[in-house]
Amino acid sequence: MTSLTPTAGADRSLSRLPSLTGLRWIAAMLVFGFHVGTMRIIVEPEFKVVVDQLFTLGLSGVQFFFVLSGFVLVWSARPQDTKWAFWRRRVAKIYPNHVLMWAVALLVGLWFADPVNPSAAVQNLLLVQAWNPTPGYFYSVNTVSWSLSCELFFYFCLPFVLPALRRASSWMLWTVVVAVPLVILALWPGQLLVPEESRWWFTQIFPLVRSTEFWMGVAAAELMRRGHWRGPALPLASLVFVVTWAVAGEWIRAELWAALLSAAYILVITAAARADVRGLPSPWRSRPLVWLGEVSFAFYLVHVFVMVTILRLTGDYGVGFTGWTGPLVAVGFLLLNLLLAWLLYRWVETPMMRLLAPSRKRPAPAGDPSATGDRAAVTPRQRAADGVDRCGHAVAPAGDQAADSGTAGIDAGTRRSG
Questions:
Q1: What is the mean pLDDT of residues 246-260?
Q2: Which residue, of 222, 343, 347, 386, is most buried by count of CB atoms within 10 Å of its CB?
Q3: pTM score of the predicted model
Q4: Helix, strand and coil in the chain, % to nearest 5
C-alpha cells in the first residue's frame, strides 16, 4: 500500500492542499467566461469566436466543484466528529454569504420593480429551491444559489454515509467512480421519462441527480485515503484534461462531453492532491492562485448578479459592446467582481466562520490542561492539527492531508451546451 503521508521534504503549508484551492479559481474563471458569452457582452465577431472557443464548456465548472466538494469533505473527515458539528461548520461556511446576497438581490429587484414570488423567495432563503421544478423557483432571487441548495443536500447526507463508506470494499468504491460517467450518459435517454418542461431541471438542477458527481469525489477520496487510488501524476492528468476540454468543445456531443469531463476532473483533483501530499511540484499552488481560490466562493455568489445589474442600469443587457469595448468591459467586470468578492470574503465569510463554526479539539491525555473544554485554551496550532483552521477551513487530520472545502456551487448546468 502506498503511503500518502507527506514526504520528509514536504512543506507544512501543503497541509491544506493548496493546488486544489488554486484549481477552484480556474473552474470559477471558466464559469465567468461562460456567462460573459451568454450575456453577449462581447459581440465583435473576431473577439466573440475566441470567447466561444475558450468558454463554451465553462458551465461545467459546477461539475468540478461538486466532485471537489465530495473529495475534500471525505479526505478531511475525522472519526470523532459529530453530525451536528459537521452540519454547523458547513452552514457557517455558506449561509452568511448566501443570506447577504439574498437580501441584496431582493432589494435590487424591488428597485427595478421586478415581481417577487414570496414562496420562491422563502424557498431560496432556506436553500430548498432546487427541489422545485416550477419555473421561476430554482433560479429565483440570486439565481446562482441553486447549487447551494444541492450542496446543502450533499452535506446533510454525507455524515450518514460515512460509516458505511469506511466499511465498503475498494472494488465497490471503484464501481462508484466508474459508474458516474455512465449515469451521466444514461440521463439523456432517461430524461424522456420526465415531462418536457421539467427536463432541464431534472438533468441540471435536481439534487438527487447532481449528487452523482459529489459521490464520485467521495469514493475517490476514500480510495486515496487507503492508498488504493490508481491514477496519472499531475502533469499527465492536466494534459488529459486540456485535451479532453479542447476535443469535447469542438467535436463531442453535449451528452458525451459532460461524462468525459467528469472523468478528467477526478483525475486532476486526485493528482493535484497527491502532489501536495508528497511535496511534488504543482503549478496550481502559487500564492496568487491560492488567494483567488480562497475568494472564489464569494466571487461565484456576486458575479452574475453584479453583471446583470450593471448592464440593466446602463441599458446594455443583451445588447453587447462592439470593438475593443467588449473585452474591456469583460475585464472590468472581472476586476470589480474580484474586489467585491474579496470584501465579502474578508468581512463576512471569514469572521462569520470564526464566530459560528465549532472547533474540533484533539483528544487530550489525562491531566492535559487543554482537556478542560475551555475553547480559549485551544491554540490555532491545535485546531489545525484537529482538522480545521481558525477560519473553519479543512486541514489535515493526523497523518493525512486535506483541503479547504468551500466549493459550494457555481451557477451553470453541466450536461448540455444549450
A1: 78
A2: 222
A3: 0.84
A4: 70, 0, 30
